[in-house]
Amino acid sequence: MDIKTYLTKKKDLVDKALEKLVPPAESFPTSVHEAMRYSLFAGGKRVRPVLAIASAEALGAKTADLLPVAGTLELVHTYSLIHDDLPAMDDDDFRRGRPTCHKAYGEAIAILAGDGLLNMAFEVLSDPRRLKSVPANRLIAIIKEISTASGVFGMVGGQVVDIESEGREIDFPTLEYIHTHKTGALIRASVRVGALYAKAGKRQFTALTRYGELVGLAFQIADDILDLTGKQEELGKDVGSDLKKGKKTFPSFYGIEESRKRAVEVVDHAVSALKDFDRKADPLRELAKYIVNRVN
Q: What is the DSSP-derived secondary structure letter of residue 24?
């Protein structure tokens, strides 16, 4: 299958869903709604929503009613990017080829735009009018999945350890903790959300969880490599920012070539986790390979 065509089609569906979830830019107060949309529609690939959709499809589920849920994953992801870019965090000036939210709208509005996106995700997830076809027990499980991945046992925890590790010597387990929480937690949750929506059996859920964990790790290893080898015009942000900030990465432990080998090994294990799934899981298999071969 052509994974780029698949990604494009699913991205278009997710973008249409997001247009319905987020208030128009002219809604009062306009500054925060403009800032939310500025970052949300800056050209992301929608990997997390697409993983949720592909996970549900692997189990044979129809995904039209999953789109609002998948969209909330992008709301959470975009909130995390806005906050990660802030001067108190990673202090980045560019994201997806344009000034970061705080550079375009100021720190205060950027913080509030991130807050708005995060809270809007749970407003959508708890609105029975938007999600009539999803039973309450499954919806509660999905809300718990996303909220845990977003919080102190997920992205927040990973970001804390990442910040506290800057400029310090850390061991490899600490680096793995940062990667599997700051980046990997929401990717794992995205796959599990699709599985929950599609009523996965216990063995299916375990296999998809393992796949999600491995893909999340592979994604971050690829990011670490791209930070050193990528082109700024393709990445849409400064190259070498991790090195400048004294962050430990996979290449700083293993070198670039060994890190590439490790990423491929992780993806191979992710694909192996799907051995009991039929061809309906091919998008998940191809997404895993795409993640380590991307240029941004």
A: P
C-alpha 203/C-alpha 200 separation (Å) is: 8
User: Which sign, positive or negative, has the C-alpha torsion 59, 64, 65, 71?
Assistant: positive
Q: Which two tokens stand for residue 26?
A: 């002219």
DSSP-derived letter for residue 21 is H
Answer yes or no: pTM beyond 0.85.
yes
Structural domains present in the chain: 3-293 (1.10.600.10)
Give the Cα separation of 156 and 154 in Å (integer).
6
H or E element at residue 57? helix 47-58
Q: Is residue 295 a contact partner of residue 230, using CB atoms and an 8 Å limit?
A: yes
Q: 3-state class of 99 per DSSP?
A: strand
Q: How far apart are the first and last CA of the chain?
A: 21
CA distance 252 to 106: 33
Secondary structure (DSSP) of 179-191:
IIIIIHHHHHHHH
**Tokens 């789109």, residue?**
67
Mean pLDDT per 10-residue segment, the chain (296 residues): 93 96 96 98 93 98 93 98 94 90 98 98 91 88 97 96 91 93 96 97 98 95 86 63 78 91 95 97 96 76
